[in-house]
Amino acid sequence: MKITWLGHGSFRIEIEDQTLLVDPWLTGNPMLPEESHEAAVAGGTHLILTHTHFDHVADMLPLARRLKIPVVGQYDLMAYWQEHEHISTLGFNKGGTVVLGGVALSMVPASHSSTFPTPEGLRPGGTEVGYMIRGQGHTVYISGDTAIMADMEWMAEHYKPDIGILSAGGHFTMDMKGAAYAANRYFDFDTVIPCHYRTFPILEQSAGDLKAGLPGVRVIEPEVMQAIEI
Fold it and tell me: Where do the structural domains in the chain lie, given as residue ranges?
C-alpha cells in the first residue's frame, strides 16, 4: 500500500488494484506545486469525496470528466451530479459499504459542515463523512474534516482500523492534542498520519503535540508527493 499526501486534506492511496484520490485539491492548493498535478492523479480509479467545502471539492467535477472515473460519495449529491453534471458516480450513505475492485469502502460519520457557494448564497452539499478503507490486510480510517465525537467509539470497535489519517490542524477540525486524545481514547492505531495542517498560518504547523500524545504509535508527518509505504 502507498499513501501519498497531496497537501492539506488530499491523498492518493494505492491499495490492492485501486488508486483512490481522496478529496484531491489541485487548483489553488498552496502545498501542491502545479508541476506535480498530473503525477498526483495519474492512474486514479476513483475520486472519493468527504464533503463539499472548496478545499475538498474544487477539482472533483473537472477530474471526473478528464480522467473519466467515478466520484464516490453520499447518494443524494452523487445522484444530482450524475443527472445534471453528466459524470459517472457511485452514491451510498453512512453505514454502507461499496466494493471497488479488491477494496471495501465504508462510509462513516464525521462532525463538521458541508456547504458550497452559489449565486443565491451557501447551499448544503449533503453532510460531512469519513471512510474506512479495507484492503491488503489493513483498515485505513480517513477521518475527513471532523471534531472529536462519541461515534468514534463504535467505529473503532466495529471496523478496527490500524491506520488513522486524521484531520488535526485545529480551527476548523481537531487540533493535534485533540487528535491524540481521540486516538488514545477510541482507537488502537499502529500508524497515524496527520493532515489538514500547515496549509495556512491559521492551522497548526507541526505534529509535535500529536507525537507527544501517542507514545508507542508510529506518527508520520507526511511530505507532499512522497509516498508512505505500509
Answer: 2-229
3-state secondary structure of 5: strand
Which residues share a beta bridge with 100? Answer: 103
Q: What is the CATH number of domain 2-229?
A: 3.60.15.10
3-class SS of residue 172: coil
Give the integer Cα–Cα distance in Å for 49 and 86: 17
Grid cell digits, residue 225: 508527493
pLDDT in tens, the chain (230 residues): 999 999 999 999 999 999 999 999 999 999 999 999 999 999 999 999 999 999 999 999 999 999 999 999 999 999 999 999 999 999 999 999 999 999 999 999 999 999 877 777 778 888 999 999 999 999 999 999 999 999 999 999 999 999 999 999 999 999 999 999 999 999 999 999 999 999 999 999 999 999 999 999 999 999 999 999 99
Largest CA distance in the chain: 50
